[in-house]
Amino acid sequence: MTLFVRFAPSPTGYLHVGNVRTALVNWLFVRKAGGRFMLRLDDTDTERSRVEFAAAIEEDLRWLGVSWDEFAKQSDRFDSYEAAKAELVAAGRLYPCYETQEELDIRRKLQAGRGLPPIYDRAALKVTDADIARFEKEGRKPHYRFLLEDKPITWHDLVRGEVKFQGAHVSDPVLIREDGVPLYTLASVVDDGEMGITHIIRGEDHVSNTAVQVQIFEALGYDVPVFGHLALLKTKDGELSKRVGGNDIRSLRDEGFEPMAVNSLLAKMGTSDAIEPFADMKALVESFDIAKFGRATAIYDVHDLERLNEKLLAHMPYEAVKPRLEALEFAQVDEAFWNFVRGNLKKLRDIGDWWAIVHGHVKPPAATDREFLDKAAQLLPPEPWSTDTWGQWTNAIKQATGRKGKDLFHPLRLAITGREDGPELKALLGLLGYTNVLTRLKAA
Ligand code: GLU
Fold first, then answer.
1. What DSSP designation does 66 have?
2. CA–CA separation, 382 vs 395, rounded Å?
3. Whose CA is closest to 226, among 198, 204, 190, 202?
4. φ and ψ at residue 33, rounded to 5 degrees
5. CA of 13 to the centre of ligand 1 (A)
6. How would you classify the pairing of strands 161-166 and 152-157?
7. 231 C-alpha to ligand 1 centroid (Å)
8. Is the CB of residue 229 below 6 angstroms from any atom belonging to ligand 1?
9. What's the rounded Cα separation, in Å, for the pair 263 and 249?
């Protein structure tokens, strides 16, 4: 059997780390096992769906390297949902309901008062033709509920193992809104069924949807796909906002994170694997196994992302980074310079600071420490330099002047770089060389 999976975001906002994790897991799953990946936009909610968000979703996925073999959007498929509706009505599995929201709320409160669970009581099945005629006259429009069968609903979940629900313990879900628009619960099953999706991997927040959708698949005569529900993602402070906040992918891109840092973290969070940087998708695919995903909530921490980003850059070969440097207008960075600085970058664009410090003009700061800088200049070891040079030099200055810590390093940094902060001086020294350092110490 060829696998077929889908990622089905609603274009009502930007992709965030939570839904991209779902996309990525589906993608890795199918790239590992062989099969097809579909990007499907769940845009039946035409009021909240936006073409800008749809375009942004595609752009963000491309940036990450999550490619799709097929594409669909639900707003093109209303005819299929209409046909499914007719089929379910004819089979007696979809029934019209005329209750208003207020009536339902009151009923739920009464149930709560009696200590009963808030399950829909199927009152709509008992209304008479006369009632319906009256409702219609009042201008009411029906919404439609799916009649669940009272039987155990079970599936073997790729992540959670055996999952079991009892039909009677769940409300008959509304599938068609009062204005005739099919809801996600139905549209998704019709798509998955008609398109032949074999595996549905999504967040744990969909477990109860799955319970009812299993019965809808059966009622429409489709094979029930295999399900996997990933544990949710949280930040240290709590729930990850689904729609807003700085956890969206474009913010991360704007902040200068590498796509593979994002992919490495999101693919390994909540698994038994260590979180480490993967240089490319191929390596991530090789290491992927859905069985490695656990049931505990995964904690998303941007510091992990920062750590991965630094590590990725530190090991990035010049050939890989060259086109990126050109795009950032740092084409002048050659291999030697890259190899020298790559271990000191938080973000790729920080390379601009290094370049400016090494090759740019350093405005000599007003020297308040002339005597100290003269001493430092005197003690600067002659070339050739090694990685020990920095330590030897600063030790010698320390001995000669009695200074240490900030008093020692700050004036050196200021004289050499013209800045209050910046890249590690130790690494910088080698890039500048004896003559440059000496000139800058004297110019200050
Ligand atoms: N549009 C749904 C969501 O973003 C899709 C869920 C599913 O994968 O079925 O939550």
1. -
2. 15
3. 198
4. -85, -15
5. 13
6. antiparallel
7. 15
8. no
9. 11
Each residue of 310-356: pLDDT tens digit? 999 999 999 999 999 999 889 999 998 999 889 889 999 999 888 98
pLDDT, tens only, 178-201:
999 999 999 999 999 999 999 999
> Is the CB of residue 220 less than 8 Å from the CB of residue 88?
yes
> Is the pLDDT reported for residue 243 higher than 60?
no
Task: Write the DSSP string, 213-264.
Answer: HHHHHHHTTPPPPEEEEEPPEEETTEEPPSSSSTTBHHHHHHTT--HHHHHH
CA of 82 from ligand 1 middle (Å) equals 20
Q: Give the model confidence (pLDDT) of 41-74 as tens digits.
A: 999 988 999 999 999 999 999 999 999 999 999 9
3-state SS assignment for residue 332:
coil
Minimum-distance ligand 1 atom for the alpha carbon of 6:
8
Ligand 1 pocket: which of 4, 5, 7, 10 to mutate (most atoms within 8 A of CB):
10
Least Cα distance to 7 among 60, 19, 158 occurs for 19
Nearest to 423 by CA among 395, 390, 392: 390
User: 59 C-alpha vs ligand 1 centroid, how far in Å?
Assistant: 19
Q: Measured in angstroms, how far is the CA atom of residue 206 from the centroid of ligand 1?
A: 8
Q: Going by CA atoms, what residue is nearest to atom 6 of ligand 1? A: 8
Phi and psi angles of residue 381, each rounded to the nearest 5 degrees, phi first: -65, 145
Q: Is 188 in the pocket of ligand 1 (CB under 6 A)?
A: yes
Hunting for tokens 């980003």 — which residue is that? Answer: 309
Q: Which residue has the tokens 């010698």?
A: 396
Q: Mutation test of ligand 1: which of 24, 37, 188 has the most ligand atoms closer than 8 Å to its C-beta?
A: 188
Q: Which residue puts its alpha carbon closest to atom 4 of ligand 1? A: 9
Distance from the CA of 380 to the center of ligand 1, in angstroms?
63
CA atoms within 13 A on the CB side of 394: 17
Report the nearest-CA residue for atom 3 of ligand 1: 9
Domains of the chain plus CATH, in order, are 1-73+184-315 (3.40.50.620), 316-359 (no CATH), 370-443 (1.10.10.350)
Could you report how far apart the first and last alpha carbons of the chain are, in Å?
72
Phi, psi of 368 (to 5 degrees): -100, -5
Q: H-helix or E-strand containing 61?
A: helix 51-64
